[in-house]
Amino acid sequence: MKRIRLGILTPSSNTSLEPLTQSLISGLPEVSVHFARFSVTQIALSPDALGQFQQTHILDAAKLLADARVDAIGWSGTSAGWLGFEQDEALCAAITKATGVPASTSVLALNKALSAFGIRRLGLVSPYLADVQDRIVANYAGIGIDASAESHLQLQENFAFALVDEATLDRQVADVVAAGAEAVATFCTNLHAAHRVAHWEAEHGIPVLDTVTTVVWDMLRRTGVDTRRITGWGRLLQEA
């Protein structure tokens, strides 16, 4: 069986995505995941916060992953939600040009999943500030997806996102479902949410797409791994 190595770009203050990603792929003995961090400590629209996502910083981390001869590189982060989807498209092209390795991101993979499920009304769950959330909603409107059914927590410090408890996430998901969402996105890779997706889907009867899971799903597909072998993590891995 061919060995598959996935390289994941990680915000420096994120404490959720690494253990969740490792758990997600634990039933795939031929797959390993390797991480590289770059500095991200806050999510806001201020110049210093936006500057954390300059392409040069991310490329430096991607090049280190390429040293491990990974088969794919994924940015497990949601910055394109407020910066614009074209930012991730340009980032993936730059990573592949610099390393020769195919690249994906949480947000571009989420958008693929929304297309696969035919979603036009998205419930957007995040920990972010109101102006960040508004920017995400506007960017989705630009591609024909109504994300006005939304819930956010008005948090800015990236480390704090991982401290959001299950009861809060349960309420947020229920609120956007009640507002008419056809699917829910837990839109932040530092929310401890991916392991709850199957529970929410069973409770509410619609797809739930977590941004830690979406990038792994896309990378596995690109490397020829059958994601249906992963059970208990939601409909995306089984159906799309």
UniProtKB/TrEMBL annotation:
Signal peptide: none annotated. It holds the Pfam family Amdase. It comes from the Bacteria. InterPro entries: Iso_Racemase_Enz_sf, MaiA/AMDase. This is Asp/Glu/hydantoin racemase. It comes from Stutzerimonas stutzeri.
